[in-house]
Request: fold
Amino acid sequence: MENKIIEGDEMHPTVNLNADNKLMQITGISRPENPKVYFSSTFEWIRNYFDEFNHQELTVEMTLEYFNTASSKILLDILELMEAYTEKGKNIHIIWCYEEDDDELLEAGEEFFDLVEVSHEYKIID
Amino acid sequence: MVNEKVNIGNFLLPRDAHQLVSMRGEIDWKNTSNVILELNQKLKDLLPTGLRKKVLKIATEMLDNLVKYNVNQPPDVFMVLHTKERLYFLSQNLIKNPDLLITLEKILWVNELDIDDMKAEYSSQLKGGTISELGGAGLGILEMARKSNQPIQFNVETRDKKTSFITLLVNITID
Reply:
């Protein structure tokens, strides 16, 4: 399966989809004009990763600077997809990264994980 | 007697409020992103990280609304003003009357909610909602009220049968 990188900028997060390392990373600011369009290839990659290539494990690292509410909805959709694959027996772990004094981003993570049942941890970054 | 208030956008704001960022004219995704980046840079020395992120969320939602609902008739206005105790976010734009009604309905509704209700509504709508054709989640007004924990103030002037001029003011305590 091909690895894929969607390069971000001042409005879009970088999405790194690495099948070799069983790793997916979303990094940066998320305020795309239409997040459904921006993340459509990410959803396609995740479904192929599990359904077509039958991978069993994936670690998802989310290191976001800030994001708008439309992005929140898409991030929750991604987490719900991970929850669905977890229920199918896949081994998925989410790492929610935040700076030590960023209680706002920590709270955003806690709100997401109140809504989905998926293995996760909070990680303080520099 | 010294007048301690100044009229900005038909709202009386403290005279010592000074402008952190502002934009006027045609507003799009690109130039609003530049304003958010400029605001982020200016806030780095002023606020702790968590509060800065909260402020950026309010600014982002206000600008998202401006970009999505403006009717391409400048001047649209966005500004963030700063006093020792508060930040004020102000937007002004022409809006189609059907969109105005939806916006006002949402504002009147969120202004009646307390912070726990807002948190519960946000989670519920995030879980049950969808992304619109315009690319929004319909959560912007609720998010501005939730993050500021203050009622959203508004002022409306009817322009004609199709459009009105709307001014929004959000403030957040920072001291």
